[in-house]
């Protein structure tokens, strides 16, 4: 599957559809070249590994008591460091990120995840290295 976004639920955006088409085309081009026996050299790519789903702060009645801080909103895939603002309580108190490493939040404040008690997902940046590959056909 391919998911390209962000995009509000029920909305079709031409720019996002174009990106999805390009990704699918690249995937199909790769399959065709691989099936034709093309050898692909080793490569290294940067990826984001999901580490943890983070819920909104809640009270003892399981009610949300803080919202995403404005400085975090719309900052998917951007570095979040120890001390950076994370949430803003309804009383105006800032709740900062407390972590021992830089993380890269994504799916920040996505409406589809409210019912799943997910404010965002913490990811870490990694590099993956692939050996060369070639079809054995």
Automatic annotation (TrEMBL):
- Please give the GO cellular component terms listed in this UniProt entry: cytosol
Q: Taking every annotated instance into account, which residue ranges of this chain make up the domain AstE/AspA barrel-sandwich hybrid?
A: 44-123
Q: Which GO terms describe its molecular function?
A: hydrolase activity, acting on carbon-nitrogen (but not peptide) bonds, in linear amides
This protein is called what?
A: ACY2 Aspartoacylase
Q: What is the lineage of its organism?
A: Eukaryota, Metazoa, Chordata, Craniata, Vertebrata
